[in-house]
TrEMBL record:
Transmembrane segments: none annotated. The keyword Ribosomal protein does not apply. This is ABC transporter ATP-binding protein. The lineage of its organism: Bacteria, Pseudomonadati, Bacteroidota, Cytophagia, Cytophagales. Belongs to the ABC transporter superfamily. It comes from the Bacteria. Residues 4-234 form the ABC transporter domain. GO terms for molecular function: ATP binding; ATP hydrolysis activity. Coiled coil: none annotated. PROSITE patterns: ABC_TRANSPORTER_1, ABC_TRANSPORTER_2. Keywords: ATP-binding, Nucleotide-binding, Transport. Pfam families: ABC_tran.
Length: 294
């Protein structure tokens, strides 16, 4: 069992943007979803935990390791798949993993060979090990990314927006792989895709404007909203009026017309019908932005 404890972590960039505003979270083994809109501060938090940038104040510990003050210790047990996983295109999957293993300090060639074979097998790329990564699909590249994040039996794995650009079957394969790994270590999945969290995570936090605005189990959050979400198909030109009168939590087009979900403690009448809330409702109700109408 591992535990990640983040306390009072804050970071303001030189341009004045407060990307992290007093973050406090405890994360146990398993898949943890960090959900937030673009710009919420997720990458800033992930980069700080991955020891790639410093915080202004606060602390973060993985078991006995003080992450901010012992970055070298943390790096030994960290697997990180950044948002942009850049690779030299001519390199093969096998060469890349071998190289990353050297960087992780695995100096014995035979040990590396065995590990690279195990990882290629695990991400189902052993047959493609001699092929240049250049020719790989997005999903295959992400699987190479996961394989490199698993080098050296990490205790903390951070994956930042991993499913962008994957087709549904690639995404599924990637989900299965992560879920498999996630049973034994702390995995943080940072994403703005609600489905990623719904399908994979037993615990989650929602971040907005540098703050944690919710933490808990996705199912609990959904139950909390139960009986308070109503929907209606409206005309596009009426949207502004509805926005003034109701607390709109989401708006999506169905057959060319806006279907709005509103938050209301009691039945608003006016043609609205009650719906079973979903995680998307939770997400939008917590971040409560006004730009969801655009
Ligand atoms: N190096 C930087 N210098 C200045 N501002 C930054 C820097 N990096 C991020 N920001 C700003 O900090 C805020 C949080 O950005 P961050 O990338 O952490 O968010 P995010 O939730 O990961 O979003 P995205 O999904 O778009 O990556 C944003 O307003 C962003 O513009």
């Amino acid at each position: 069992m591992s535990k990640l404890t983040i306390s009072q972590l804050s970071k303001t960039y030189p341009n004045g943007v407060k990307a992290l505003d007093n973050i406090n979270i405890e994360i146990d083994n398993g898949m943890f979803g960090l959900l937030g809109p673009n710009g919420a501060g997720k990458s800033s938090l992930m980069r700080t935990l991955a020891t790639l940038q410093e915080a202004d104040t606060g602390s973060a510990h993985l078991d006995g390791i003080d992450i901010l003050n012992q970055p070298d210790e943390l790096r030994k047990v960290l697997g990180y798949l950044p948002q942009e996983f850049g690779v030299y295109p001519r390199v093969t999957a096998e060469q890349l993993l071998d190289h990353m293993a050297i960087l992780k300090g695995i100096t014995k060639k035979s040990e590396r060979k065995e590990m690279v074979k195990y990882l290629l097998d695990k991400v189902n790329l052993y047959d493609k090990r001699k092929k240049a990564i250049k020719g790989f699909s997005g999903g295959m590249k992400q699987r190479v990314g996961i394989a490199q994040a698993l080098i050296g039996s990490p205790k903390l794995i951070i994956v930042d927006e991993p499913t962008a650009g994957l087709d549904p079957s690639e995404r599924n394969r990637f989900y299965n792989l992560l879920a498999d790994v996630g049973e034994k270590v702390v995995v943080i999945l940072s994403t703005h895709i609600v489905d990623d969290v719904r399908e994979l995570c037993t615990n989650m936090a929602i971040m907005n404007l540098g703050e944690i605005v919710f933490k808990g189990a996705p199912q609990t959050a959904i139950e909390d909203l139960s009986g308070k979400v109503y929907q209606k198909i409206v005309k596009r030109e009426e949207l502004d009026n509805y926005a003034k009168e109701y607390s709109i939590i989401s708006n999506k087009m169905v057959g060319g017309k806006p279907l709005i979900h509103v938050f209301s403690e009691s039945n608003p009448g006016d043609g609205f019908e009650q719906v079973q809330p979903n995680l998307e409702d939770v997400f939008f109700s917590k971040i409560n932005t006004s730009n969801i109408l655009v």
